[in-house]
Design brief:
Elements lengths: L2 H13 E7 L5 E6 L2 H4 L2 H18 L5 E5 L4 H11 L7 E5 L12 E2 L7 E9 L3 H12 L3 E10 L4 H7 L4 E6 H9 L1
Parallel strand pairs: 3-4, 3-6, 6-7, 7-8
Antiparallel strand pairs: 1-2, 4-5
Helix pairs in contact: 1-3, 1-7, 3-4
């Protein structure tokens, strides 16, 4: 079984809930993908890190660091960074806070992010693209260069198009339709 197939199976088995849900976007859905149930598990991390790192290497983005809006992006970013550790170009992971820290250093980006870093924004689930666009804005304000967005799951509800309309390419590891198909088998 390929890493991609394993990831689809893990997401279908652990992360999909059926019912009526209001998503962070405010949209209603008859299913909810709680990716954290996969991204925070040992099995999920062991597949997501290497698969994401390999995908980034093939993307041609040539990034220095990876990160996104907390909390969804955090475990994915850390898994990718760990998977890159033995490579010729290890990637540093960072976190974008939802709001600027009110004490201490007052940062919105935590971790080893540096000005002029070329970064891939990490997203767990793209629905409208709003979270990724927020992270992109914070990174650009901190003088980072955004090469693209790497999403674990694209819900296929217009988020990819919204991000791409802002001039940022998107790669998703899994489409929601693939997870839904896996639920039926």
């Amino acid at each position: 079984m390929t890493d991609h197939a394993m990831l689809v199976d893990l997401l279908a088995e652990r992360s999909v809930k059926r019912g009526l849900f209001t998503l962070a976007s405010g949209k209603q859905s008859n299913y909810y993908i709680d990716a954290r149930l996969t991204t925070m598990s040992p099995e999920g991390l062991s597949v997501i890190g290497p698969l994401s790192f390999s995908t980034l290497q093939k993307s041609g983005w040539h990034v220095d660091a990876i990160g996104g809006l907390t909390l969804g992006a955090d475990p994915i970013s850390y898994a990718i960074s760990y998977a890159s550790a033995g490579s010729d170009h290890p990637l540093r992971a960072f976190t974008v806070r939802k709001e600027t820290k009110a004490h201490g250093t007052g940062k919105i980006i935590e971790g080893p992010f540096r000005e002029r870093d070329r970064v891939a924004v990490i997203e767990d689930v793209i629905t409208t693209g709003a979270s990724a666009l927020r992270a992109i804005e914070a990174i650009r304000t901190a003088k980072g260069l955004v090469a693209g967005v790497l999403a674990l799951v694209d819900r296929e509800e217009g988020g990819r198009q919204a991000i791409e309309a802002a001039g940022v390419p998107v790669i998703s590891l899994v489409a929601a339709s693939q997870i839904i198909t896996a639920l039926k088998t």
